[in-house]
Amino acid sequence: MPQVPILMPQLGESISEATIMHILVRPGDEVEADQAVMEVETNKAVMEVTTQCGGCVTELRVTEGEMVPVGAVMGVVEATVEEVERSGAQELSAAEERTAPVAADAGAHFRAEGEFIESDFSQHRVEGRPGGLPVPLGVRGAHYLSPRLRARMDELGITEADMAYIVGTGAGGRITIEDFEKFLKYVDGWPSRNASPMRRSVADSMQRTWRRPIASAGRPVYMAPIILHRKQHPRRPGFTLYFVRALALALAEVPECAGYMVGGRILTPKKIDIGVAVQVEDGVLVPVMRSVDQSTLNAQIDEFNKVVAQARSRKLDDVYKGGGIATVTNFGGFGLTFAAPMPLPSESLILGVGAMQKVPVWSDEVQCFIPVEQANISASFDHRVVDGGDIGRLMQRIAWFLEHPELL
Q1: 295: number of CA atoms within 13 Å, CB side?
Q2: How many domains does one find in the chain?
Q3: Which of 67, 202, 246, 377 is most deeply packed, by most CB within 10 A?
Q4: Does 400 share its domain with 253?
């Protein structure tokens, strides 16, 4: 009978691998076409892998926790000739010919990577990946890395960003191969954990973001109008949604504040698509709400609640993935009153929202200090694209919209 593979699908444009989270079937189980047989985790979400056709599961080639490349054969379903013809499923022999060079040692390769921090650093050759070792920060960075040192880094999957942890003793503060080996010996045996796909994705994004000159600016905004509007609103919109709307309306007036610099040109966004940073286990997901300036706050309550819930479950609909021009992150929920968040590499602007505080503000009307609810907002931006004055004007408009929530 025909043997049909269970393949790791292409789960996104930039995704080359995924981690097996849950295997939902066992050898001997009968399955139907398009039945979910595994849950896998990418650096962006948890997704399901389904069967090509119905039949009996005869073999599983992966284990939970294993990282598997796209296109690899993860299991086998035995099906009838009629079922294969009906579904148009690809048979195992063709799939193995196409993926054998990649899949032959994939399991061993990724298992080795998962172990390399907890065992002897010299034992494993692994592919370099974003991330870092949990070690203290050194006082000098590496300005030059010799070919020999780079080869050793490649063996262990260590990036240039990780090298900032090491104090160089060579000429001009350069890191020598001896410094590197001493560092590995120093951290060997430290308590550690494997970085999740989400954590590696965040690390990679922040490294790419830091290649640009990122600046930050901040100011307080009055929260009383929002508090009153929300109290009187029958559906009680989330506080973050007010800031998403205010940012969108302000950017609609000055979209160049979220522009890109490409060569000698500054590109201005065509649509006001705003991301919302949502804290998830071991990282952050940023679902994107589309054309936020073209609707109203009231009309977007359900969508906002939906994207936040999907992000927390890490099962985002495709329409909410990527393509934003700016992001709102509400770190005030963690008690932080001010921070300078980092924009995504694909964006040049992020708006941060701090915790509300009751502060004394002088009133000329009553000639005394009165308690006022305030929150600090901060904008981090690509300084090549805009200057402080432009961001100052943008934040003035954001503050104005927040003081007039009925216009949101």
Answers
A1: 20
A2: 3
A3: 246
A4: yes
At residue 137, what are phi and psi to the nearest 5 degrees? Answer: -80, 130
Q: How far apart are CA 237 and CA 406, in angstroms?
A: 13
User: For residues 325 and 260, what is the distance between their CA atoms, to the nearest angstrom?
Assistant: 9
Query: Is the domain of 266 the same as that of 137?
Result: no
Q: Give the span between the Cα atoms of 365 and 216, in whole angstroms.
A: 34
Containing domain of residue 82, as a range?
3-110
Ranges of H-type helices in 189-277: 197-209, 224-232, 239-253
Same domain? 80 vs 135: no
Two structure tokens written together for 91: 């048979």
Chain position carrying tokens 């930050």: 216
- Residue 332 corresponds to which tokens in the numbers above? 């005030």
C-alpha distances out from residue 99 to 7, 74, 129, Å: 10, 11, 22
What's the rounded Cα separation, in Å, for the pair 251 and 255? 5
| More reliable by pLDDT, 104 or 155 | 155
**Tokens at residue 72, please?**
């690899």
**From the CB of residue 81, how many other CB atoms can be counted at a distance below 10 Å?**
9
* Tokens of residue 43, six digits: 């650096």
The pLDDT tens digits of the residues spanning 87-105 come to 888 888 765 544 443 333 3
Establish if 204 belongs to a structural domain: no
Work out the end-to-end distance of the chain between its first and last CA atoms, rounded to an integer number of angstroms: 62
In a domain, 208, yes or no: no
Two tokens, residue 62:
């992966």
Look at the pTM and tell me if it is higher than 0.85.
no
* Distance of alpha carbon 284 from alpha carbon 301, whole angstroms: 21
Bridge partners, 275 (sequence order):
288, 327
